[in-house]
Amino acid sequence: MKKNSTRPQGAKLHPRNPHQGRYDFPALIAASHELAAFVAKNAYGDDSIDFANPQAVKALNRALLAHFYGIKFWDTPDGYLCPPIPGRADYVHTLADLLAEKTGQIPRGDTVSGLDIGVGANAIYPMLGRASYGWQFVGSDIDPVSLQNAAHIFASNAVLKDGLETRWQKTAQHIFTGIIGPDDYFDFTLCNPPFHASAADAAAGSNRKLRNLGLSQSTRQQPKLNFAGQHNELWCVGGEARFIAQMIIESQQFATQVGWFTTLVSKSDNLPAIYRALQRVKAVDVRTLPMAQGQKQSRIVAWRFC
């Protein structure tokens, strides 16, 4: 078992990630005209949007998806997670590099299949993987509304056609069990686990983001921010550490049905326990792949049994 990195710590976005540098708002507005209503000069005289305004962030996401990926329709129900696209794209491109090790070339097309654990209403990872590399996805979630919306997004875009099958996880305590069938094989799994361990932790995290945006709970009545989300998107009992621990335990059961198991790990303090858990299940190859997530450094942990 080995733990290694393909990019140095401190690296910025993946070289193939198209979201480098500042947003080109004229180009984005040309791709999606609704964005124009939300763009204004910030305190530094640069074009920007109010990132505390969920409608502005949705408009930005729609413009990014239209301009870079040809995705003309995208929306999420009110109160559901509206993720920043650049960091999510980094996960997909980093994963593509991992898959390329086998032949020296990135595999593309419908023959490549992935399982997104917690696909969410936004369906961000399957969208980016389908549009960038033509991969085929199964998306699982415990929330039927999320699955319905994800399926609607794919059905509404020709570039995504037939790229996603949704599966309902009926048992919230399970990850792969009840989702991976006896005849399934996936080249990879991916996951952005619930970060927080409780609703209180999630609320505290939202308050920190408010402060980072120069806002406070007193300046806005019940703000619905771009980083808001349903409880299952933001927290679970035990948080990221417990979720990934369960994922590792269940992965052993499906060892021959998945090429690479992968998950985002936001908290570096969780890594030692993750490595110990992977040793216990006898994973033969473990990778730690650093990546950027906006202004912070994050990483993907990947493992396999074959």
UniProtKB/TrEMBL annotation:
Gene Ontology BP terms: rRNA base methylation
InterPro entries, sorted: METTL16/RlmF (IPR010286), rRNA_lsu_MeTfrase_F (IPR016909), SAM-dependent_MTases_sf (IPR029063)
Location(s) in or outside the cell: Cytoplasm
Superkingdom, natural source: Bacteria
GO cellular component, one term: cytoplasm
Keywords, in A-Z order: Cytoplasm, Methyltransferase, rRNA processing, S-adenosyl-L-methionine, Transferase
Name of a matching Pfam family: Methyltransf_10
Catalytic activity from the UniProt record: adenosine(1618) in 23S rRNA + S-adenosyl-L-methionine = N(6)-methyladenosine(1618) in 23S rRNA + S-adenosyl-L-homocysteine + H(+)
GO MF: 23S rRNA (adenine(1618)-N(6))-methyltransferase activity
EC number: 2.1.1.181
Region span, Disordered: 1-20
Role: Specifically methylates the adenine in position 1618 of 23S rRNA.
NCBIfam families registered for this protein in UniProt: PRK11727.1
Family to which this protein belongs: Belongs to the methyltransferase superfamily. METTL16/RlmF family.
Name the UniProt record assigns to this protein: Ribosomal RNA large subunit methyltransferase F
